Amino acid sequence: MTASITNLRVRYNECDPMGIAHHTAYPVWFEIGRTELLRQSPSPITYRDLEAKGLALAVVTLEVRYKRPAKYDDVLELRTTITEMGHVKIKHEYELLRDGALLATGRTTLACLDRQGRPQAVPAILRS
Amino acid sequence: MTASITNLRVRYNECDPMGIAHHTAYPVWFEIGRTELLRQSPSPITYRDLEAKGLALAVVTLEVRYKRPAKYDDVLELRTTITEMGHVKIKHEYELLRDGALLATGRTTLACLDRQGRPQAVPAILRS
Amino acid sequence: MTASITNLRVRYNECDPMGIAHHTAYPVWFEIGRTELLRQSPSPITYRDLEAKGLALAVVTLEVRYKRPAKYDDVLELRTTITEMGHVKIKHEYELLRDGALLATGRTTLACLDRQGRPQAVPAILRS
Amino acid sequence: MTASITNLRVRYNECDPMGIAHHTAYPVWFEIGRTELLRQSPSPITYRDLEAKGLALAVVTLEVRYKRPAKYDDVLELRTTITEMGHVKIKHEYELLRDGALLATGRTTLACLDRQGRPQAVPAILRS
User: Which candidate among A15, B113, B124, C123 keeps its CA 20 to 30 Å from the CA of A21?
Assistant: First the structure.
């Protein structure tokens, strides 16, 4: 499983005085996309399972391009794709749409770390 | 030390499409008031020190009364007072003001817990 | 329609260093419960429709009682009930459960306001 | 005024189950850096003044590189710099430090928009 689709409804508290979703809501949604992608994987493994093993996937880079605003109560479709699975790092790309129109795109790089913040190999189960 | 005053500036992302601070920002500010009250205590002890000892002060009740809206970029004065120090529980009251006008009041009850969520005696150092 | 049930999954960013949902996430969830209750009403009317008419339902009191922690990725059931429909004010009660166990309860009072913050009669359509 | 320094203390609710500031807190801090940079400008003009004139500075791109974690209650220094002032767009760069150690860097592009979301010239007062 290297891609997933998640539906999200924009919350009132995620919107700002411009009446639109604040730009910091988008990386929150991307994180939900990653959680759901993991859940839908054939293994299946949850991020909570990873943390129980003492591993964390820390965000080391984040990029977002905002094209059109999202409004309160909009239903959005988030497409999350794994674009690269390295030894320690995982790259994802995101597309956020409303009724087929692209609102934003994003990219993240995660690093697999232990509880002391030291780089660890991405578990084999995440590579399946 | 049973009372403290903290100044806060309303953040843009704390405001909603009505153009005012969202009601969920207020308990975030109350928590800052408690943190600063602890820091200003004669001991002094920080909440971070408590967590390092395996203790947590968990919120078990919260009440807020909203009287006048707070707006983006407003400078607010938060008055935080300990009103009751029990064996396991601590009660605080809050007054939030702008230029002397009362915007909101609040009350919380915290319980001292260990890492397994079991009630613990409030450390003596917090009683000084 | 005076009651609704909404399912929510606890987001990673809603959790704090204790590993549990931060207490300020609960009133965010209650707001979602109100939004969904309005959407499921026979009329049907959305909160977005109300705002387009220049009306707002502002929270004037909030109470939460926290009984058991909610954890990251938990699926919660939120029961939202209208307990009083006054001329200007609406009262709701909330029950938050996980697998049938009660995690928290809450109560809010909302006031119907115009764009200048003046009290307005709750629209008839909300009373149906 | 093309650069400013802002001090911030990491809030408890900004931290996640890893015990460190969640990655979505950083763009919130960057926004505070921009607000303070504007306030410290010789003019001086506040972002609230801009909004009152019907203008908004919308984030169109965001990039963050996370190098070291920030912890609860840490005092951080945020350096915000305007790197490009175009006709419609403004670019900023950010450095976030703790005790002189670089924790993260960031870049944003803002576009000046009217209330309908149409591009507008950046007001002359922002160029001074």
Answer: C123
ipTM for the whole complex: 0.94
Name the architecture of domain A3-127. Answer: Roll (3.10)
How much is the pTM? 0.96
Write the pLDDT tens digit of every residue in D44-73.
Answer: 788 888 888 899 999 999 999 999 999 999
Low-confidence ranges of chain A (pLDDT < 50): none
Contact criterion met (CB below 8 Å) for D28 and A24: yes
Neighboring chain B residues of D71 at a CB cutoff of 8 Å: 48
Residues 6+ positions from B21 with CB-CB distance below 8 Å: B10, B14, B15, B69, B70, B71, B72, B74
Q: Name the closest residue on chain D to residue C20, using Cα atoms.
A: D17
Distance of residue D21 Cα from the nearest chain C Cα, in angstroms: 9
- Structure confidence at residue C23 as a pLDDT band (50, 70, 90): very high
- Percentages helix, strand, coil for chain D, rounded to the nearest 5? 20, 45, 35
With CA atoms as reference, the chain D residue closest to C15 would be D16
Distance CA B46, CA B27 (A): 19
